[in-house]
Automatic annotation (TrEMBL):
One example GO MF annotation: isomerase activity
Positions of the catalytic residues: 2
Classification via SUPFAM superfamilies: Tautomerase/MIF
NCBIfam families referenced in this protein's UniProt entry, alphabetically: PRK02220.1, taut
Family classification: Belongs to the 4-oxalocrotonate tautomerase family.
UniProt protein name: Tautomerase
Length: 66
């Protein structure tokens, strides 16, 4: 039973998240031949103020864009 766990910054639409679930499921079916009904997908959304790279949060990067 494949378990796909994805962490991403908040801000995507419900439609985008639904599409991501479908495409990840499709990829697991294709890659490992798992039955569709056995695939689990969890999306974890993190506030952009709680995710940083190089000591700069996503929120700070977004605010600095022109």
């Amino acid at each position: 039973m494949p378990f796909i766990d994805v962490t991403l910054a908040e801000g995507r639409s419900p439609e985008q998240l639904r599409t991501l679930i479908t495409k990840l499921t499709d990829a697991a079916v294709e890659a490992v031949g798992a039955p569709r009904e056995s695939i689990r997908v969890v999306l974890r959304e993190v506030p952009p103020t709680h995710w940083a790279a190089g000591d700069v949060t996503i929120a700070e990067r977004r605010a600095a864009r022109p």
